[in-house]
Fold this sequence. Notes:
alpha/beta; Carbamate kinase; eight-stranded mixed beta sheet; 24 strands; 450 residues; 16 helices; seven-stranded mixed beta sheet; Aminopeptidase
Amino acid sequence: MSSPTLSPSARPSPRFEDLRGILRYVPQFRQRVFVIAIDGALIERPGFSSLLQDVAVLQSLNIEVVLVFGARSQIRQLAAQRKISLSNDDGMGRTDADSLDVAVDAITRQSSALMAALTALEVPVAVTNALSVHPAGVINGIDQEFTGRVERVDVESLRACFKADILPLLPPLGYDGKGTTRRLNSDAVAAEVGIALRAAKVIFVSESGLHRNGQRIPQLTIQDARELAREQATTDVNLLSKLRYGALACSATVPRVHIVDGTQEEALLAELFSNEGVGTMIHADDYHQIRPAREGDIPALMAMLQQSIDDAALVPRSAADIRDNLPDFFVLQVDGNPIGSVAVHTHTVTGAPPTAEIACLFVSRSHKNCGHGRRLVTFAEDTARLRGCQQIIALSTQAFRFFEEKLDYHTAAPEILPPSRREAYEHSARNSKILRKDLSAASNLPPPSA
C-alpha cells in the first residue's frame, strides 16, 4: 500500500451551482443527525465564514447538526503569548494545571467567537454541557492529571436542542462527577457523540485531506482505515486521529464518516451532496455491522445465548439482566440479522484507570470460523480504549485457548480483578480462567490530535 500524503496545494472543489444535486439528497438527510467536528486551525482562516454558512445550510434543510470544535492552534498561540510550556495541546496526553488554564481560556474564547458568528448567520446556537467525563487516570506510569475521557453523552439534552431548532455547540472540555474541568480531544468527542446519537454521519473538517500518490482517497472500509492508522502511513498526526476515531464510530452506530479538507471552497456541501465527493468516506460494511443492542434485540439475544448457557460456556443471565445492562451490549448482525454478541463492562476503582471486561461473547454456530469472534473482540478492545481503559479482562471456562492463541491474551491471577468483580468471581465458583490484555501496549496508534 502506498503511503498517503497531503496534497501539495488545496485544489478547488466543484462549484456547487446545481440545486437539483442538493434536492436529490435532501429527503434522505432530513431529520438525520450530522456531527461536524471542525479543527481549530480552520477557524482562523479567511474562508471560515463560508464554512459556517455551509453548516447553516445543512440546518436549514432540517438536518440535525451538532458542532464540535477543536482549539489546538489557539491553545498553542495563547501559551506562547503567556510564555507557558504546554504539557499537551491535543487533549490526549497529560494536561497539567497551567496547560488546563490556557486551554480553558482559549476554548472559551473560541466558543464565544463561534456563537457570535453563528448568531450573525441567524442560526440559534447554545453551548451544551452534554458530556459526563472521567479522569484519564495513569497511563504508562504517568498521571494524566486534568485530561479526561467521555463517559456518557446526555442524548436527551441534545435532542431537546434539535426540537427547539437550536444548534448544539460542544467544546473539547468536560466535567467529572466532582465538578473538575477536564480537557478532551475534539475528535474523540465527535465520535462519542455520533455513537450515542446514532448519527447518520460524523464529519471531520480538517486542514488537509487524505491522499495517496497525490490522488485523493475517496473511500475506506473500517478495516482499511484501521490498518492505515496502525501502519502510521501518513506523517499527519491530525489525520491519524480522524482515521482512528472515524473507524471506531463507524464500527459502532455511525454508517458513514467523512474526512474533508476544510481549506477547499464549498468542500462540506460538495462532499455531502455530490456522487463524487471531495473528501474521504469511511463506511461500514453493509453486509455485517456491530451496533449497540436495542431492547427489541433481547428476545433474539436470549435465544442465541441459551445453548451456550446450557453448555455452561456462558454465565446464566435473564432478559432482565440484559435489559439492566443494555448500554454495555453490542450485536453483530449479518445481512440485518443478529448472529453474535459481546458485552463490554467497565469497572472503576478510585485512583486507577477503569478496567474493561469482555462478557457474553457469542457467535451462532452457523457463522463460526468466519472471523466474527475476533471481530467482536477487536471491537470490544477499541471500545475499551475509547473509554480510557488500559487493560481488558475476560473470564472463560471454555474459550480461553481462543483468547490466548488468537488474540494475545495472557492468563492472570484473581488479584488483578477489581474488588467488586473479584468478589463476584469467587462467589460464582465457576473456576473460570482469567485472561488479561494490556491495551496500552497492544495499541500502536499515535495519540490523536484535537
